[in-house]
Design brief:
Order of helices and strands: HEHHEHEHEHEHEEEHHHEEHEEEH
CATH architecture of the largest domain: 3-Layer(aba) Sandwich
Shape: globular
Helix content: 25-40%
CATH superfamily of the largest domain: Type I PLP-dependent aspartate aminotransferase-like (Major domain)
Strand content: 15-25%
Distance between the termini: 20 Å
Number of helices: 12
Number of domains: 2
Bound molecules: pyridoxal-5'-phosphate
Strand order of the largest sheet: 2-8-7-6-5-3-4
CATH topology of the largest domain: Aspartate Aminotransferase, domain 2
Number of strands: 13
CATH class of the largest domain: Alpha Beta
């Protein structure tokens, strides 16, 4: 996976135009309303965007029936995942994470001393909640969950996830990463944050809202917990730019764009599923904008096949297996992927 990642990065900007399917980006965004708001916000970029931060925190709060005090803004959710890792080190606790999952934030946390234990997914590549629960030890102070999970695209049954939170959050911090919930209407657990100060929910504008390059994410939590997190930011809630804040605010009102992205994503995913089926490649139906598939019955080199057609971004996972992940691009792009396979 590292080799492929470095190939993607080294090849950017690419020598020839490549179809980029490695980062679970949304090929359609930002939304038309967000683009306009971002262009307008350039003019006011000589000022710190204090009002825009307040507006966005309020607006996000409303989206989940919460308040501005339940929201902390970051330059992408990655910034905030990193802060939660650092916070756990400060509390002298260890962490438990699923394997395989979205663990980009863990090397930085390890570097500053976080001890991380992993729990394997179930055979159907779903997070093993009882394994996670059983793995919690007296010094475990953080449980990371990603729902839907990246790279597998699988979701936890909402009642089981809620029961896990109710059971674990009284004694241990849960960091629930909901980067992809919007693609398939996976229910958010935001309704629980005021009841459980130990529950933190990470969200992003990088995925369904198509603003990965604008770098804007947030965490929802109890106001007390939000204060803890913001106290670890060099300037509370001030890492996002005026332009990104304006785009995010506008994109929350552009509901038809979200519907469009979801619909196109579903169509493009179907094209990819059909190509995989034809090639005898098994896959896990995904609730996200990427697909996890297993090339063990496929004799050809799928990475080379796609690269030959100008498609970059397949990543491999699970050592000594042939599990891969590919981001779902546009309908046209997935037609090219299908053709290449
Ligand atoms: N969480 C998950 C599960 C992701 O897959 C990603 C990015 O791919 C992120 C968080 C980071 O998103 P952001 O762009 O908000 O930093």
């Amino acid at each position: 996976a590292r080799k492929i990642e470095s190939r993607i990065i080294n090849n950017f900007p690419p020598s020839k135009p490549m179809i980029r399917l490695g980062f679970n980006e949304n090929p359609y965004g930002p939304s038309p309303m967000a683009r306009k708001a971002m262009m307008d916000a350039i003019n006011g970029s000589n000022r710190y965007p204090i009002d825009a931060v307040d507006q966005l925190r309020n607006r996000i709060g409303k989206e989940y029936n919460l308040n501005a005090s339940n929201v902390v803004i970051g330059a992408g959710s990655s910034e905030l995942l990193g802060i939660v890792g650092a916070w756990t080190v400060m509390k002298k606790g260890t962490a438990i994470v699923p394997e395989v999952s979205f663990l980009s934030w863990t090397p930085a946390a390890k570097k500053i001393g976080l001890d991380i234990k992993t729990v394997r997914l179930t055979g159907s590549r779903v997070i093993d909640l009882s394994g996670m629960k059983n793995g919690i030890e007296s010094n475990t102070k953080l449980v990371y969950l990603c729902n839907p999970n990246n790279p597998t695209g699988t979701v936890l049954p909402p009642n089981e996830l809620e029961a896990f939170i109710r059971n674990v959050a009284p004694t241990c911090t849960i960091l629930l990463d909901e980067a992809y919930t919007e693609f398939n209407d996976t229910p958010s657990m935001a309704k629980l944050v005021n009841e459980f100060p130990n529950l933190l929910i990470a969200k992003t504008f990088s995925k369904v809202y198509g603003m990965a390059g604008a770098r804007l994410g947030y965490v929802l939590a109890h106001p007390q917990t939000i204060s803890e997190i913001t106290s670890l930011q060099p300037w509370a809630n001030a890492s996002a730019s005026a332009v990104s804040l304006a785009g995010a605010l506008a994109s929350l009102d552009d509901k038809s764009f979200v519907i469009y992205c979801k619909t196109e994503n579903a169509k493009a995913k179907d094209i990819f599923y059909n190509a995989l089926k034809k090639a005898n490649i098994s896959y896990i139906p995904s609730s996200t904008n990427f697909v996890y598939f297993n090339c063990e019955n496929y004799s050809k080199d799928i990475v080379a096949q796609l690269e030959a057609k100008g498609i970059a971004g397949i990543r491999t996972y699970e050592k000594n297996t042939r599990w891969c992940r590919l981001t779902v691009g546009t309908v046209e792009e997935m037609g090219k992927v299908a053709e290449a396979i």
